[in-house]
Automatic annotation (TrEMBL):
Residue stretches spanning the membrane: none
EC number in record: 6.1.1.-
Source species of the chain: Tepidimonas thermarum
Function: Catalyzes the tRNA-independent activation of glutamate in presence of ATP and the subsequent transfer of glutamate onto a tRNA(Asp). Glutamate is transferred on the 2-amino-5-(4,5-dihydroxy-2-cyclopenten-1-yl) moiety of the queuosine in the wobble position of the QUC anticodon.
Annotated cofactor note: Binds 1 zinc ion per subunit.
InterPro entries in the record: Glu-Q_tRNA(Asp)_Synthase, Glu/Gln-tRNA-synth, Glu/Gln-tRNA-synth_Ib_cat-dom, GluQ/Sye, Rossmann-like_a/b/a_fold
Annotated family: Belongs to the class-I aminoacyl-tRNA synthetase family. GluQ subfamily.
Enzyme category, top tier: ligase
Top-level taxon of origin: Bacteria
Name the record gives this protein: Glutamyl-Q tRNA(Asp) synthetase
Amino acid sequence: MSATPAGYRGRFAPSPTGRLHAGSLVAALASWLDARAHGGAWLVRIEDVDRPRCVPGADHAILAQLAACGLSADEPPWWQSQREAAYAAALQRLVEAGWAYPCACTRQDIEAAWAARGVPRERHRGRPYPGTCRPEHGGLRGRAPRAWRLHAGRVIRALGLPVPLVWHDRRLGTQAQDVEAAVGDFVLRRADGLWAYQLAVVVDDAAQGITDVVRGEDLADNTPRQIVLQRALGLPTPRYLHTPLVCGDHGEKLSKQNGAQPLELRDAHAALDALAAAAAVLGLPGPAATRDASLHGWIAAWRQRWAAR
Ligand code: GLU
């Protein structure tokens, strides 16, 4: 059991690649309930760094959906597209520490590097970056920089981080990942110039003073990377709770990519139905007569189940 942090601050951080669907509402509701159950603040951050994937207007549509569900934020939303200077400053600090380096490799270069090491083609995928452009291997050797990567092994050794990195999730319990072996030198700034999710989320969680991250379980395996980055940047690590995923008819995770339908919250009934479905996924009791009475009851149920965890 970990103590409730003083001055709880939570957030919901949707990517505006479409409106909320049944799966994303679960994360929104859970993070809101956790903040309310702790008497804390709840923030909304629009994670629009991956601009090609963003759908125009989806940000405001999401904010309207949250409002229709009674999930009120305590501060004005942030847009990550307005935070580029903070990401650039963070990358600069990592570069100066010798913990981030430019990489010239294309996907084909990475495959070729694995092939040269005798790793069969079908086993290249999902492998960490082979380290071709690491400074100790000669760096760019005259090639043009594309992406920027974290020198994960250097950070882990310099800071004496445990291998594997062990972290605690309030729902999933103790988790562990060997970050260097599993993901290696991950990207901080992409070849197309866009900021990587890992860097943006870590910088903004700290800048917003987030004490508690509550989000979908599909993001759980990003957490060790984020903890390494937090340590590299001297930022605090929030507590984490990853919520159950909503599955489609064939057991697959419901997501925009596999055609999850946006929630149509035309009236109070529709909003209550959507909330009740999300609450059921979270193991909360059935709804009350109205939306606000239901939210009230779920805060109490959530507090009982999660506040001390
Ligand atoms: N923007 C991410 C997403 O919508 C969530 C980030 C997070 O909660 O850390 O999948």
